[in-house]
Structure formats: structure tokens, C-alpha cells
Design goal:
Helices cover about 70% and strands about 0% of the residues. The chain is mainly α and about 375 residues long. α7 (about 105-110) packs antiparallel against α19, α12 (about 175-185) crosses α19 and α15 (about 225-240) packs across α16. It is a multi-pass membrane protein.
């Protein structure tokens, strides 16, 4: 009897259930940890995501099964669509819409960058993905992790791990992806263009903007309401100047807590059976296509605007229409400074950069409204 119990105990050890797929996922997990810790690639998300992948691929733990700890993070935080809007609350409390209000044309550039979303969407359909999967892959072009996760939860939860890791990876690769696209589509003279100073935006304008933006966007695209309402509420907290405690909690303590749950929840979806398939490779390839087309779309529309406008814009700022805030704006500024050391594009680029956050959230809402 004792021998049988001992035999059963040994047979129940997780090591006997370990598969090659589990080991491969551990390698992927360690690679993401390396990028986050050693290279500083989106560490706030990639550290919990990578550890979530690591833990999710231990056999027999029950962590990701119904009722398991990581399942609870995923089900209650992500599947119920709670965490992404809370992330947007924090983002809103950190976002300055001043550059957009000073130059409203930048809203068009933020919208133009969504070309990458739709380019990847139609390409994914040609690759044989379902319409729900194609929409989820396309949104990677916005380089907005929370929006990607939100859309995945709505349309294709089984792709959440791959699409979210792709989105956050490409956010970190902005300095690698944008410069060649920008230099290909602009001349040195265009890159050296110095833009005129921006007007001062009043406090009243900054307070009214989140209210009016919510009114317009949510009426037109109701499915974008969870993200937009929380984004604009966070911004109103900051701009009102009367709820400093709420502002600080939104962009610090709350943001940090939900980031942990988000990372572990996303990582828990990346078990070997979910992740190790040809679709994952296609998703990462299409993510590059989406991101490149997004940067190109913003640049080309900026050049088109210059044909009809007296107040010219440096076409480079169109590349900042992807919503990787503020990294895309910094990269654009650096490219302009290389062409002309007197060129200061950072604040001008922040306009389309912030507008891109809105554009990607609207695109996600439009997909949900059209497909779900």
C-alpha cells in the first residue's frame, strides 16, 4: 500500500508531464525577461507578462484552469474588459492635449496613421484569418497595448497573448521601425523643415476638450466608450486641477496595480498549445506591416496637407501618429534634429502622437461595432 502511494506520488510529479512545448515557452519567457531587464524594452509590462508565460507552462499547477489564480486575473480583469479601461484612465491622467489643441490639424495625422491598422486587417484576411482575428491583428498597427488587449478580449481571446506581446514589442521597436520608413518617404529638405511656434492653449480649452471629445467620439462610435470615457475622465482629473489625489492615484498606484494583473493575465494565455502554431509567426510579421504602414500613412497625409495649406508641417510628425506615446514623438524629433540641428519637433510631434491614441481606440470600437 505504501509502495503504491509512493509510486502514485512520483507519477504525479509535474516533471513527467513536461513537454517540449513547455520548454520552448520557457525559452520565449526568458528571452522576454532579458529584453525587459537588460535592454529596458517595456519592462513594466514585459516582466509580469514573461513571468506569467513561465508560470503558465508548468504542468499540473491549475494556475490557468478555471478557478486558478491566473485564470481569475484573466477572467475578472481582462475577459470582463475591466483592466484596459483602467489603464486608459491612467493614460488620460498623464496626457497633455495642448499640442493637439494648438494645432488641430494633427488630429488628421493621428487618424491617417490608422492606415496601418486597415492594411494589416485586409492582409490578414488574405492570409486566411477570420474577420475577428484579422481585426485583432490589425490593431497592432496602432502600437497601443491596452487597446490591442481590449479588442482581443472582445473578438479573439485566443490570440491575446501573441497580439499583445507583438504590440508591446513594436512599441519598444519604434526607434528601429520609424526611421527607415520616414527617411524613405521624405527628402532631407522636408526633414529639415522648421515649424513655427505653437500658440498657448488656455486652461479653459484643456478642461473643455475631454468633455467635447467624449461627446463627439462616443456618439459616433459607441463601442469605443469604455476606453474613451475613462481616457477623457483621467485627462479631466489632471486638467481640472482640483482633484490632485485622484490624478496621482490614477497615474501611479492604480496604474501600477492593474499593470501587474494585466501582465500576468496576458502571460497566462500563452501556454504552449495556444502559442506554438504558424498563426503566431504570421501575427508578428503582420504586426511589422501594420506598424510600418501606420507611420507611412501619417507621413503621406502630412505631405498631402502641405499641398493645400499655407502653414506647412514637417511631414515627419505624421509618423508620430502611431500611439506609442511619447516614444514616437521623440524618435521623430531626433530624425528632424539630424537633418537640421535647429529643428525642434518634439511638441509638434506630440499632437499626432496623442491623436493616435484616440484614433486607435476609435478604430477598435469601429471593429467591434461592425463585427461583433
Amino acid at each position: 500500500m505504501l509502495l503504491q502511494q509512493l509510486t502514485d506520488s512520483i507519477a504525479g510529479l509535474g516533471i513527467w508531464q513536461l513537454t517540449a512545448g513547455n520548454v520552448i515557452m520557457w525559452v520565449i519567457s526568458f528571452a522576454l525577461m532579458y529584453l525587459a531587464i537588460k535592454k529596458g524594452v517595456e519592462p513594466l509590462l514585459l516582466v509580469p507578462i514573461s513571468f506569467g508565460i513561465f508560470a503558465a507552462n508548468f504542468p499540473l499547477t491549475g494556475l490557468t484552469g478555471e478557478g486558478g489564480l491566473f485564470y481569475l486575473f484573466f477572467h475578472h480583469g481582462i475577459e470582463t474588459e475591466l483592466i484596459p479601461p483602467l489603464i486608459f484612465l491612467g493614460l488620460g491622467a498623464m496626457t497633455d492635449f495642448g499640442p493637439v489643441l494648438a494645432n488641430p490639424k494633427t488630429l488628421i495625422l493621428g487618424a491617417a496613421a490608422q492606415l496601418g491598422v486597415y492594411a494589416a486587417f485586409f492582409t490578414a484576411l488574405l492570409f486566411g484569418f477570420t474577420i475577428e482575428e484579422a481585426a485583432t491583428i490589425g490593431i497592432i498597427g496602432g502600437a497601443d497595448g491596452p487597446t490591442t488587449i481590449y479588442l482581443s478580449a472582445n473578438l479573439a481571446p485566443h490570440l491575446m497573448g501573441a497580439t499583445s506581446v507583438a504590440a508591446y514589442s513594436y512599441m519598444a521597436l519604434v526607434p528601429v521601425i520609424i526611421p527607415p520608413v520616414a527617411k524613405l518617404l521624405t527628402t532631407k529638405k522636408e526633414r529639415a523643415m522648421v515649424m513655427t511656434g505653437m500658440r498657448t492653449v488656455s486652461k479653459a480649452e484643456k478642461i473643455l476638450f475631454p468633455i467635447l471629445a467624449s461627446l463627439v467620439i462616443i456618439l459616433l462610435v459607441p463601442q469605443a466608450a469604455p476606453l474613451m470615457a475613462m481616457f477623457m475622465l483621467g485627462n479631466l482629473f489632471m486638467e481640472s486641477g482640483v482633484v490632485e489625489r485622484l490624478t496621482n492615484v490614477s497615474r501611479n498606484e492604480l496604474m501600477n496595480i492593474v499593470t501587474i494583473f494585466l501582465g500576468l493575465g496576458v502571460g497566462s494565455t500563452m501556454s504552449a498549445e495556444n502559442f506554438l502554431n504558424p498563426k503566431t509567426i504570421y501575427i508578428f510579421i503582420l504586426g511589422v506591416v501594420a506598424f510600418s504602414f501606420a507611420a507611412a500613412g501619417g507621413i503621406l497625409i502630412a505631405k498631402l496637407m502641405n499641398v493645400f495649406s499655407k502653414n506647412k508641417v514637417n511631414p515627419l510628425i505624421g509618423a508620430a501618429g502611431v500611439s506609442a506615446v511619447p516614444m514616437a514623438a521623440r524618435v521623430v524629433h531626433n530624425i528632424g534634429s539630424e537633418a537640421n540641428p535647429q529643428n525642434y519637433l518634439l511638441m509638434h510631434a506630440m499632437g499626432p502622437n496623442v491623436a493616435g491614441v484616440i484614433g486607435t481606440a476609435v478604430a477598435a470600437g469601429a471593429f467591434i461595432m461592425a463585427i461583433k
